[in-house]
Amino acid sequence: MRKFVVTIALAALTFSSFAQLVSLNNDEIKKLKAQIKNAGQTKKLYQGFEKAALNYLNETPNPIDTIRTEGLLKGNPKKEKTRSALADMNKMFALALQYRITDDRKYLNKCAEFLGAWAKINKPDGDPIDDTNLDKAIEAYDLIRRDLAGKDKQQIDQWLTETASAEINSKRMKTGRATAINNWNAHRLKEVGEIGYVLNNQEFIKWTIENLKSHININLFSDGTSLDFKERDAMHYHIYDLEPMLKLAIMIDRAKGPDFYTYQSPKGSSIKKSVEWLIPYINGEKQHEEYVHTTVKFDRDRAKNNEPGFAPGTMFKPDLALPVLKLAVYFDVNQADLLKRLINNRNDWQTIPDELKRESKLTK
Q1: In angstroms, rounded to a whole number, what is the distance separating the alpha carbons of residues 14 and 256?
Q2: Residues 335, 286, 284, CA angle at the centre, nearest 5°?
Q3: Which of 201, 232, 195 is nearest to 316 (CA)?
Q4: How many CB atoms sit inside 10 A of residue 171's CB?
Q5: Taking Cα atoms as reference points, which of 135, 142, 144, 154 lies closest to residue 109?
Q6: How far apart are CA 297 and CA 277, in angstroms?
Q7: What is the pLDDT of residues 98-136, one digit of tens each?
Q8: Which one, out of 109, 195, 261, 263, has a CA that is 20 to 30 A from the CA of 328?
Q9: What is the SS3 assignment for 67?
Q10: Using CA atoms, how far apart are residues 349 and 41, in angstroms rounded to an integer?
Q11: Does the predicted TM-score (pTM) go above 0.90?
């Protein structure tokens, strides 16, 4: 595989139309402010978010040098240490969004402190299952990058550039390895793509788009199933594969790029078909017993470790598909009613940014 090297200078190109494609853009922030002021339900949900963001001002970053979740069983000390450190991700995002809502620089400064601490300590090693945990930090940076001081921006740019480059050059990407074509690659593409859009790094963006085409062709099948479903015999992994692809497809769409939701590969597979194949299992028309015929030892190890949901024969729960349905409705409003039924009137602050992105798509 061709060695992929990107200089920090290239990664830090001035960005214009690519700003806030991963998170909310300026117009969406304005609409969010108006909803908080005028819409009772949004205002009520915001109160909890506001309180949390205020509390985060008094907290200290807890960065970890190496994220370790992949391949580790629940209770493993390395995994537990990582779990504790990753609480910083949602804190960063909350601080960044609260800054954009209030224009109060104390939130900007605190978010910059968190991001800077992680940029200084964390050393990426090209494992996408570990790096996928950085999503909220990257979204936070997308919200505040334009307002950061040059030194802070350079340090965080370098960290994210190294993270994306490590993914592209990883040994796990080599031809012949399962991790080059299964859910690992979906998360790899999403991670490189979102970093590319935040930094307006055109090489990262081009690499992501080219490789997403080949991933859809290799990983998804024309009947809607996926390689991960066939190997793991679990909806859990079909969902885990589709979620990053949908996130990436939304970013590309917001950047006015190709429509990867309906894009069909040479063998007739598509993200849309794989979402639609899942729908009967979400609405209850079909049922599935998870992991009965899995070919992966780690699945059996988690079952022996008594981790919930991994015992062979466990019935698939439609709620587990919420991450996919929340993203798919961006492209297909016909799924909105099913999403409402699945959410079942549960209040969720995160649904508001998702809805703002959908509204932007409908009005553009």
Answers
A1: 18
A2: 55
A3: 232
A4: 11
A5: 144
A6: 26
A7: 999 999 999 999 999 999 999 999 999 999 999 999 999
A8: 195
A9: coil
A10: 10
A11: yes
